[in-house]
Design a protein that fits this description.
With 168 residues, the chain is an alpha+beta fold. The protein is 51% helix and 19% strand. Helix 1 runs antiparallel to helix 2 and helix 2 crosses helix 4. The protein starts with a strand and ends in a 6-residue tail after the last strand.
Length: 168
């Protein structure tokens, strides 16, 4: 039973998550603008690839270690189901899910799902077995990992969650 869960108020809510997204998208936009200006001055053919590499490092390696600017400003962090820093593979797939598979409709569904979920997880958090929690949150307890099937928009997703003790 190495898996942990947190109190509901320790999970990152909708407004805090949206503020974090806004800060991170602004930071990436500013970086992108810098690269567009630099690309027009120096005409480096690889400038777009360098930007994508830096954006990837920002949204995975930095998020995993100290946190992105959005995570730092809003006082949140990302952990796996064991309460530890998630691996780079999980963060990479989480980023791919968000970047390539998200349409405006799915983004809306993700945010709706977040508000009704006990752990305030989005679909990509559920799929990658991560929690976004407040920076100083401590686990509220331990539980076994259990399979759960989610039925969303005629799509069945198999995910793993941490079981909580039953309430009397």
């Amino acid at each position: 039973m190495d898996y942990v869960y947190y109190r509901r108020e320790d999970y990152c809510g909708l407004l805090r998550r949206l503020a974090s997204y806004a800060i991170d998208f602004s930071a990436l936009g500013a970086l992108g603008l810098t690269f567009v200006i630099a690309g027009s001055v120096f005409t480096l053919p690889a400038i777009g690839w360098i930007y994508l590499l830096l954006a990837y490092l920002y949204l995975t390696v930095m998020k995993r270690s100290v946190g992105t600017l959005g995570y730092l400003a809003t006082g949140i962090r990302i952990v796996d189901l064991k309460g530890q820093r998630p691996g780079l593979v999980a963060l990479t797939f989480r980023l791919v899910w968000c970047t390539f598979w998200m349409s405006p409709l799915l983004a809306f569904v993700e945010l709706l799902f977040l508000s009704g979920d006990e752990d305030r997880q989005t679909l990509h958090d559920k799929m990658m077995q991560t929690y976004v929690i407040k920076r100083k949150a401590l686990p509220a307890g331990n539980g076994a990992r259990q399979p759960v099937i989610l039925n969303i928009l005629c799509l069945s997703l198999f995910v793993l969650e941490v079981a909580r003790p039953r309430r009397p």
